[in-house]
């Protein structure tokens, strides 16, 4: 297996055994500030750069681990590729333009999805060249001693830690409710627990919530993950036809989880248990207390 990564990615994940065929540079652009369009222009440039350095014709199978429909059209890539879907299906479900482009792409390429819900949705749209590939589990994370000191400093004298690793996909309204809710604050104080959120500070948050306000390195992320007692995944109800990487990390690391009760997550109920799902802050508070008693 030959891999193409962004520059420095293999080093970031601490894997030196991967056969890296090419590392494409990540350059800032004047278009980056333009929401939506800027990221697509950057992706198109990256895809074209890769095609200049890698001849796909030399390989029996070529898999794109991520793609955007609009960027793909202008990338110059030909057919025969295997395309892994992340939020693509949710996008085509709400946009007729994306759906049309997706169908055109699917005529010459193979779609890969992580679950049966996504597969069934594509069948409804008449897209049949689809395969289900179950989302793999990473090797369990390890505590890096130098990063553990950072974790201990942020945790302070708290006995228990609840960690929200992701900020990109969360329900902002729900997160604000969590960090400002009086009953959740009282529960955290009662059990000497702290919530650590990997995001920017939120106005009005109680003292039992700590915001990191910066991007964690891979070693820091793995250390925080390993040493937290509960993983919090407060995603919106609209999070559909996709799989959460944080959920897969939680399963791989045998973590207690609290996540929004949505169909995309219910597929893993047999692995995480009924009590891992919550519907609102009241539900979350009750489940948190049960888990803190249990630990």
What does the average pLDDT come to? 92
Specify Rg, calculated over alpha carbons.
21 Å
Helix content: 40-55%
Instruction: Count the E strands.
Output: 12
- Spans of at least 5 consecutive residues with low confidence: none
- State the end-to-end distance: 42 Å
Give the helix/strand class.
Answer: alpha/beta
Task: Output the strand order for the largest sheet.
Answer: 9-8-7-10-11-12
The succession of helices and strands, N to C, reads EHEHEHEHHEHEHEHHEEHEHEHHEH
Question: Globular, elongated, flat, extended or rod-shaped: what is the shape?
Answer: globular
- Treating each run of at least 4 consecutive H or I residues as one helix, how many helices? 14
What fraction of residues sit in β-strands?
Answer: 15-25%
Tell me about the biggest sheet? 6 strands, parallel
List the helices and strands and how they pair.
Blueprint: E1 3-6, H1 9-12, E2 20-24, H2 37-53, E3 63-64, H3 69-73, E4 82-84, H4 88-94, H5 96-106, E5 110-113, H6 116-124, E6 130-132, H7 145-155, E7 160-164, H8 172-180, H9 182-190, E8 193-197, E9 209-211, H10 218-227, E10 230-233, H11 245-252, E11 256-260, H12 263-266, H13 269-272, E12 277-278, H14 281-294
A few lines on this structure:
The chain has helices at residues 9-12, 37-53, 69-73, 88-94, 96-106, 116-124, 145-155, 172-180, 182-190, 218-227, 245-252, 263-266, 269-272, 281-294, and strands spanning 3-6, 20-24, 63-64, 82-84, 110-113, 130-132, 160-164, 193-197, 209-211, 230-233, 256-260, 277-278. The chain is of the alpha/beta class and 295 residues long. The N and C termini lie far apart (42 Å).
